[in-house]
Specification:
The protein has 2 domains: about 210 residues, Rossmann fold (3-Layer(aba) Sandwich); about 70 residues, Tyrosyl-Transfer RNA Synthetase. About 55% of the residues lie in helices and about 10% in strands. The strands form 2 sheets. It has a 3-stranded parallel beta sheet with strand order 1-2-3. It has a two-stranded parallel sheet with strand order 4-5. Helix 2 packs across helix 12 and helix 3 crosses helix 6. Bound molecules: tryptophanyl-5'AMP.
């Protein structure tokens, strides 16, 4: 039996990158009877960049609703809010003292935020240690994530090994599971799709708003009648993640032939998204109208998660000489 664990930050409503890069692969792994799974909402991580409690709360529900809409089964999976199991904060401190300063200072996401944000707080610096604690606390073997989180997983392994070397075998060393097909989903501007770049496709938006986002995808200015290169086009790239093989080939031929405009390609992408995710969009809206149900499910998960967390902390406290 392998343990799968992964989390989504509640910094926004999960976008197509989160869904294809993490939510869908994680749920597939969770539904495999040879695995048990811990899937959660990383609301403590959202403290580093979101400072409005109401927005955080709404996004936390949004992430929960997205997990469930894509088929997370809370009977089989431990499904919880990170902040409901405060043991993770104690472990974060223990791990901070086994996390070398230069490793944290060289983290790509930290350097990226140093460059982009005017307000860089301590939380952003120790962000990877909280993430390591999320994983290590529950003895996870495999962590399905997008490629952008791979470095954080390397750091987690490093921190866990340093601790094990210092205090004796205590933690399972986890492994990242990155799906080669969906490592980095591009956003509407062609950069990595990310809440921090403001280039996301939120498939849960109402039809009209979703269509507007799709129509905003950046393309070059090749006129309608001329042939176009599908492999450098953001619309085609996104289409190829969601359409069937036949439809993708059909669009490729349309591009190469010419007489096919980007507006038509965008319309096809929009229609495909709406059709492909119609069930999930409906379920998401139902859950968002029934937050008490979400709270109930998350509480059951937190109670289960806490039992495992307390066992791990007992082990850690003994190793550290507290007990
Ligand atoms: P977050 O919330 O930024 O993203 C959640 C998951 O979505 C993946 N992802 C992508 N995959 C493909 N293409 C993209 N454009 C794209 N954008 C995001 C991410 O790789 C991630 O798997 N630090 C984590 C949250 C976290 C976590 C954890 C994850 C906290 N604790 C413990 C795993 C285990 C984060 O910020 O993800």
């Amino acid at each position: 039996m392998a343990r799968i664990l992964t989390g989504i930050q509640s910094t926004g409503i999960p976008h197509l990158g989160n869904i294809l890069g993490a939510i869908k692969p994680a749920i597939e792994m969770a539904n495999n009877p040879n695995n048990d799974a811990f899937l959660f909402i990383a609301d403590l991580h959202s403290l580093t960049t979101i400072f409005d409690p109401n927005i955080r709360k709404e996004h936390t529900y949004g992430v929960a609703a997205a997990w469930l809409a894509f088929g997370l089964d809370p009977e089989k999976t431990v499904f919880y809010r990170q902040s409901d199991v405060t043991e993770v904060c104690e472990l974060t401190w223990d791990l901070c003292c086994s996390a070398p300063y230069p490793m944290l200072a060289n983290a790509t996401s930290f350097k990226d935020k140093l460059d982009r944000l005017s307000d860089v707080n301590g939380g952003i610096f120790i962000y990877p240690v909280l993430m390591a604690a999320d994983i290590i606390l529950y003895d996870a073997n495999f962590v399905p994530v997008g490629k952008d989180q791979q470095q954080h997983l390397e750091m987690t392994r490093d921190i866990a090994s340093t601790f094990n070397n210092r205090y004796g075998e205590t933690f399972v060393i986890p492994e990242a599971k990155v799906d080669e097909q969906v490592m980095i989903i591009p956003g509407i501007d062609g950069q990595k799709m990310s809440k921090s770049y403001n280039n996301t496709v939120n498939i849960f938006l109402p039809d009209k708003e979703l269509r507007k986002v799709i129509m905003k995808i950046i393309t070059d200015a090749t006129p309608v009648e001329q042939p176009k290169n599908p492999d450098t086009c953001n619309v085609f790239k996104l289409y190829s993640y969601v359409a069937t093989t036949d439809k993708i080939e059909e669009m490729r031929q349309n591009y190469l032939r010419g007489g096919y405009g980007y507006g038509q390609a965008k319309e096809a992408l929009y229609q495909t998204l709406v059709e492909k995710f119609s069930k999930e969009r409906e379920l998401y809206a139902n859950y968002m109208n029934n937050k008490e149900e979400l709270d109930k499910k998350l509480k059951i998960g937190a109670d289960k998660a806490r039992v495992v967390a307390q066992e791990t902390l007992k082990r850690v406290r003994t190793k550290l000489g507290f007990k």
